[in-house]
Each structure stands twice: as structure tokens, then as C-alpha cells.
Amino acid sequence: MTGFLFELSFWLAAPVWLLMIFAPGWGPTARIAGSPWTVVPVLLVYLALAVAVFPELWTAVRSPDLDTFRDLTALADGAGAIWAQIIAWDLLIGQWMYREARRLGISALLMGPLLVLTILLSPFGLLVFLGLRAARSWRATREDLAAAVADGAT
Length: 154
Fold this sequence. Notes:
about 85% helix, elongated
């Protein structure tokens, strides 16, 4: 059962990822990606796995320590719970990136591969996106200032 739940956590998130990557301009995609409720099924999987190892989980979060965390992840339900938590948070990060990219006018052709990177290695994907977002915001601010100066000169 643990193996099934482990795999299920990804497959519950996959449709949202597929929409953001392959149908970013489709109307329902923006609505779906704008909802935090997309992670609830994955969090329910997390809860199912976490309940089975709650004493070990509580020990690991109450007093964080590498050996205690290693003990938790050595248990199938513990590793599965951590995996489901990662899948849920990665999906929320991906949804935020998708919405920010649309707000900033970042190309879907650029965001598709970046979202794939985020699925696989979310810290790398998020860092790249934050850099891209900062560059895009900086450029927009410069353009707004130039336009304001030009409007003031006329």
C-alpha cells in the first residue's frame, strides 16, 4: 500500500503540471493553477502515510536532528510521507511560478522547460525563476521610468 501511495502522490499532481507546461494559454489552466486546492489530494496521501509513522515524524520535527530524520526516512511510510509533502510543495511553487510568469509576460516557451526543471529539482528551478523574475521586473521598472521621463518632457 505504501508503494501505491508513494506513486499516487505524483500522479495526483501530474495533471496540473501537464496543463501548465503544455496548455499554458488554455483558459481553465489559469483557473486551475490559481487554486491552492490542487494540492489537497496529495496532502491527503501525505496524511495517510504520516499517520502510520506519527511518533517518529513528531520526534523528527520536534527536535530536528540528522539521525532522527534519517530514522524517519528509513521507514517506508516515513519516506513516502516526505515524498508526498515535497510533491505538494513543489506543485504550489510551480503554480506560483506559472502565475507570476503570466503576470510578467514571460514566454510559455521559456517557462515550459523551467517548470520541468522545477518538477525534477525544485530548488534549482525556483532559483532560476527568481533570477528571471528579478531581471524582468528590473527591465520593466527601467522602461516605466523611461516612459515617465518621456511623458514629462512632452
